[in-house]
Amino acid sequence: MKTTSKKEFTPVVYGETSVKTAHFKFDANASGFSQHWHDRIELHLVKSGTLELICNNEKIWIKKGEISIISPAFSHGGGSGDTGVEYYVLMFDIKDLYNGTVSSRKYLDPIINGEICFKYKTDIPQIVELAEEIIEMNTNTKENHSLEIVGSLYRLLGLLCRFCIDDRISLEQHATEKFESVISYIKSNFTKEISVDSISKNFNYDKSYFCRKFKSVIGITASKYINIQRLEYARGLLENTNKSIMNIALSSGFSESAYFINCFKKMYGITPLKYREKNKKRAGTKKS
Questions:
Q1: Which among 100, 233, 257, 273 counts the fewest CB atoms within 10 Å?
Q2: Which CATH code for domain 169-288?
C-alpha cells in the first residue's frame, strides 16, 4: 500500500466545509499525476473520457459516470486514456468527521486504520448523485452549504460502507495480519527508542484506536507488552553477562536505570542486582 510510493506532504486546506473539490481536464494519453498516498479519502468523478488509475499496482479504468474510491494510505497515480479525460476530485479527511459516537468507533476508526478498505470504483447511482451534489454545493460560493456538506459526507460514507466495502480480505483477517506485523516490529525493535506514539505512526494508526485495538487483540497494553520484551531481554543479560545495571537498562531499551529497576522489581518481585546474585551459578563461564 503506502510503501509503494511517497506520501503527499502538501497540506490540504478544507475550511469550514471539511471537504475540498477540484476540477481537472487532460488531453489524450496525458501522464496526469504520479504515484503517491495520503491519509484522506479521495473520489474521482469522471464527466467525460476515461481516467486510468494505478491503485496499489492494479490498473483501473474509470469511465464517464463512474467514481474511483481511494481509501486512506492507498498508493495511486494516473492519467488520461486515448480520448482524454475530464473529472472532479472530492477529498475529505475521516478524522475531521470523527465524533466519538458508537457509529464512529464502529465504522470510522476501521477506515482510518485500514481495516475497512473500499472497492476501487463504483457506478451506483445513489453514490454518484450524492458526490455530484456535494461538489455542486462546495463550488457554489454564493450560498453557505457547510453544515449540509458535512451531513452529506456522513451519508456518503454510509453508502460507501453499505455498498463498496472490499470483502476480498475479511476485516478480522486483515486486522490479525496487520497486528502480526506490529508484534514482529516490536520484537525486532524493543531495544531501540520505540513508543506507542512511534509504532502507531509507523503503521498508520490513530494512537487512541491503536491502544484500544492492541489491548483487545493481545490482551495487555502496548506499553506493557514492550516492557515485558525489554525485561525478558534484560533478565538474560543479568544471567549471562557482567554488564552493569545501567548498561543492561540501556541495552534493553530503557532510558534510565531507576525506571528499569522499578519495572524489573514489579515484574519479578526482586531487584536486578539481587536477581543476578541469585543466579550467579547458572551464569557460570558465560560471563563477559
A1: 100
A2: 1.10.10.60
